[in-house]
Amino acid sequence: MILVTLLLLQSRPAFGQASFPYGSPAFRTFVQDSLGKEDKAFYRWFETSLRQKGYGGVKELMSYSKDPKEMSAKLHEAIKKAIPKFSLDRGFEFRETVSRGERQCFLQSVLLAGLMQRSGFDAGVAMVWKNDKGSTSNNGHAVPIVRTKEGDLIVDCSDPTPFMKHQGLYISDGNKGYRFVQPRYKGDAISTYLAGGPVVARGLGLDFLRSQFDFYRGERAPGGFLAAPKTASGLAASARYLERAQKECPENALAVYVLGRVYARQGK
Q1: How many Å from the N-terminal Cα to the C-terminal Cα in the chain?
Q2: How far apart are CA 20 and CA 118, in angstroms?
Q3: Which has the closest alpha carbon to 143: 79, 94, 47, 66?
């Protein structure tokens, strides 16, 4: 087992298989899905908020450190201060960041990983099914993961301190698709990922990331799946977003599952 783990560490590919550096076409797609085509309001807002909080702009922040652990810790601090409010109901929308200063675990993870990629570091996003205390959920949380020489760091902007040790992650296993894994740690860093035996872990793909944004839109639609009371129009909106999420990434099992429950509510 130790030999296999060492060989995996030596030969592992980049964690961030999905390339979406901040400001890139891929990252702009996430923003445009929320704000509309070529809307630059988020970039202007984030730049202004960073300056107001004393970080300079994005360019200045990106030059903070060439060490991935130091850089990710600084981004953890800057994102929490620049986007001060946390909202499960709206924080996955970049437009709500602009209008309300809100964030949620998935948006902040994509943002931090995108900024790390723009700085030249290896980073991606994973879902969490078991947190640091051992509590389980149905992929109820998201985190960015940053690769360093010492191992992979979970940089969780939902926590006051940057580096968390969640016990169960949902990642890509190369060409084998998405799977649940249990990380093992050495200090703050993940030394290996286990699913029966060691696996080569990579971040969620672009199709999954875009699908997950639409999943949250469907889950949180006013009058929709999680609302009380539910309305016919709200459930129709949930179904529309979840159908789109399923088409974007058929492997996003959570979108498929919730869509089935919405259909049941609609009597389909």
Answers
A1: 49
A2: 8
A3: 79
d(CA 232, CA 194): 43
Q: Which residues contact 161 (CB under 8 A, 6 or more apart)?
A: none
∠ Cα 162 139 75 (to 5°): 20
Summarize pLDDT for 34-63 with one digit per residue, the tens.
Answer: 998 778 999 999 999 999 999 999 999 999
Among the listed residues 3, 100, 117, 121, the one whose alpha carbon sits nearest the alpha carbon of residue 42: 100
Tens of pLDDT, residue by residue over 2-37, are 444 444 444 567 898 899 999 999 999 999 999 987
The token pair that represents 74 in the structure block: 């600084």
What's the confidence (pLDDT) of residue 118? 97
What type of residue sits at position 129? W
Q: Are 136 and 146 in contact (CB under 8 A)?
A: no
Cβ neighbours of residue 95 closer than 8 Å, sequence gap 6 or more: 34, 35, 41, 42
The helix/strand/coil state of 267 is coil
Check: CB of residue 62 under 8 Å from CB of residue 98: no
Which region among 5-9, 27-31, 100-104, 109-113 has the lowest average model confidence (pLDDT)? 5-9
